[in-house]
Amino acid sequence: MPRYRKKPVEIEAIQLTRDSFRAAVRFVPIDQFSAASEDDEGHVYVDIRTLEGVMRANEGDWIIRGVKGEHYPCKPDIFAATYEPA
């Protein structure tokens, strides 16, 4: 079976934490923003409108701005395995 490697691209991203909550909300454009708040356990989250529907970035997740300006959440372990500082 043929194999493929992901092309190297630089992205912008912010990790959602209690301290970065306001910056993370500002990072997502208004037309892609759905909601942001705290859950019942006191963890912050941001809901983002994506092509696949509304996706939730939970505290600790990364919010990525893709190559076409789209925003989406990414779990920390996937982010660490896929990206490195540019």
Describe the overall structure.
The protein is an alpha+beta fold. It has one domain. Helices cover 16% and strands 36% of the residues. It is built from two helices and six strands, in the order E-H-E-E-E-E-E-H. The strands form two sheets. The chain has a three-stranded antiparallel beta sheet with strand order 1-5-6.
The Cα radius of gyration reads 14 Å
Helix content: 10-25%
Give the count of helical stretches: 2
Strand order of the largest sheet: 1-5-6
Portion in beta strands: 35-45%
Helix and strand string, N-terminal first? EHEEEEEH
Structural class: alpha+beta
Distance between the termini: 31 Å
Task: Give me the count of strands.
Answer: 6
So what's the overall shape? globular
Mean pLDDT, all residues: 96
Question: Low-confidence parts, pLDDT < 50 over ≥5 residues?
Answer: none
Number of self-contained structural domains = 1
Profile the largest sheet.
3 strands, antiparallel
Identify the notable features of this structure and list them briefly.
86 residues, alpha+beta, three-stranded antiparallel beta sheet, 2 helices, 6 strands, globular
Write the layout of secondary structure elements.
Elements: E1 12-15, H1 21-27, E2 33-38, E3 44-50, E4 53-58, E5 62-65, E6 71-74, H2 76-82
Antiparallel strand pairs: 1-5, 2-3, 3-4, 5-6
